Each structure stands twice: as structure tokens, then as C-alpha cells.
Amino acid sequence: MSHLFPPPILNSILTFMICILIAVPASHGDGDGDGDVDEQYMSCNSSQSCGTVQDIRYPFWVHNIRPQFCGLRRFELQCHDNEYATIGIGHQSFRVLEINNTHPIMRIVIADYVGRDCLESIRKSSISDPLFNYTEKVRNLSLFYDCSGDFSSQLGNNKYKCTSEGGVVIRSFYTVDNNDDSRLHNLSNSCSSVVKVPIQLTRPNILYLTEGRLIEALNQGFEVRYDAEDKLCSTCTSHHPRGICGSNQSSDEFSCFYPPGMHLRPSFSHSL
User: Fold this and answer.
1) H helices present in the chain, as ranges
2) Higher pLDDT, 169 or 24
3) Using CA atoms, how far apart are residues 264 and 240, in angstroms rounded to an integer?
4) How many angstroms separate the CA atoms of 222 and 226, rounded?
5) H helices of 24-64, where?
6) Using one digit for the tens of pLDDT, what is the confidence trace for 6-32?
7) Where are the beta strands (DSSP E) in 90-220?
8) What angle do CA 132, 225, 110 make, to 5 degrees?
9) What pTM was computed for the model?
10) Domain of life of the organism in this record (predicted)?
11) For the chain, what is the mean pLDDT?
């Protein structure tokens, strides 16, 4: 019986193929499939920017710019003509002013506020989402619109005039909550509309409010802390300095992406 390859040559071929299989490493990660992990790692291994918001990284992803598996589903950013970014929290849209990647803090402003001081039509401005919480310096600023009463002349810089969307000039007042001035608290009974908005009590903002520069104060936005599985991400990056935090796009569970050819990886708890 004749053989296509003599036994010694056949053995050499088999040995060569086995060596190739051993030498080619399998990609590892917690993505949708190991075959996609190299692509996911390369896609998430660089940060993106949008307008003034620089170095966008996990847990954020940007629609049509940074894939969803580079972040978490609830942290989607929308980039508007590369001029500014927005994020949806609850049923509201917020313009993102700054993201701090060292600490899980971002500075935002309600999108409808930008450039406006007449907010009488705003009905809800608070954040009610367990993933986002105000920082310690955030207070409510109460805005009183279309107020009457002879006490208005005594309020100094706390009063201002704004023009409504209909072009009507409205007499208005504002005060930071927890203010002990009883005159300001009594305004709620003499005004047609009272709106509470979050504001950051920084030195510049306090100066703006003292000088009656309400738009400047509102445009500075306010800070919120975000909860994005930091412990899992820290485990990922500490296990290997080139580890990249991401997620499984199907389940939104945390994933850790590693450079191509890396075999070892830590175990992660996917309890979100």
C-alpha cells in the first residue's frame, strides 16, 4: 500500500502543525465572543473628545463615535456637531461641561438652561437617578417669577428682570435654599411661578449671584458623582497596566479587554 507522504515526513508535518497551534495565542476577554475581543480592545484603547469635553473614557461611550462596548449602556453621550456633548439622565437632557476621569465626577447643566435666565416654563430640574448624585457643594436655587408686593425694592441684587419666550418682561427674584431671609421665603405666596434649579456654590458662582449675574452662574453647571462599577474597573487595570474597561454589549455586564495575545485575566463579579 502506497502512502502520499512517507511516515517520517508525515510526522514532521504533524509536529509543525501542532507547534503552530501552540504558538498562536487565543484572545481573551469578556466580550460577546473571543474572536471580537482584539477589535474591542483596539476600539477602546483610545479616548475621544467632543467639543470642550476631552479624554472621554469608560464608562462613557459616544453615539456613532465610541462604541457602546467601551462603556456602559446608561452612560451614552451624544455629540452635537463636535461642539458639545449631552447625556440623558432620567427624562432630561444635560449638557456635559467636564468629566473628571480621576474621580467619578462630571459637571453638567440642564440643556434647556444654557443661555437663559427666564426659566418660568421649566417644571422639573432635579436628578432622580441612583447612578448620579449631587456633590456636597450643590444647592437648590429658587427662582421666583412674576411676583407682586411692595417688599421687592428691599431685595437688592436678588431681583432681576428676564424676558420670557413670548417676549414678556417678568419681574423675578432668586435665592439659594436654606437662606434665612424670611422675605424671600414668603415670595412663594406672591409669585405666579417658583422654579428650583441645582447650582454649584463655588466662589465664582457666589460672586455672580451677589452681583446679580444669574446667567453666568447657571451656565457654570453643577457636579454629580456617577456610579460605574469602579471596583471592577480598578481590578481590570491593576491586573495588567494595559487592561481596558468595557462591557458586554448584549448584557451590559462589565468586561475587561486585554492586549492581543494575553492569556491570563482576573475573575469578575457581574453583579451590577
Assistant:
1) 7-23, 34-44, 182-185, 203-210, 214-219, 230-239
2) 169
3) 9
4) 13
5) 34-44
6) 555 545 544 545 444 333 333 344 444
7) 92-100, 105-110, 132-134, 138-147, 159-163, 169-176, 191-200
8) 60
9) 0.76
10) Eukaryota
11) 78
Q: Are 198 and 134 in contact (CB under 8 A)?
A: yes
Question: Do residues 28 and 42 touch, judged by C-beta distance below 8 A?
Answer: no
Q: Which amino acid is at 23?
A: A
Q: Which amino acid is residue 188, in one-letter code?
A: S
User: Rounded to whole angstroms, how far apart are CA atoms 65 and 119?
Assistant: 33
Residue 113: count other Cβ atoms within 10 Å of its Cβ.
19
Residue type for position 215: I
What is d(CA 55, CA 59) in angstroms, rounded to the nearest whole number?
A: 12
Total number of residues shown for the chain: 272
Rounded Cα gap, residues 79 and 63, in angstroms: 7
**Domain residue spans in the chain?**
27-104+228-272, 118-216
Residue type, 189: N
Q: Cell numbers 471596583 label which residue? A: 231
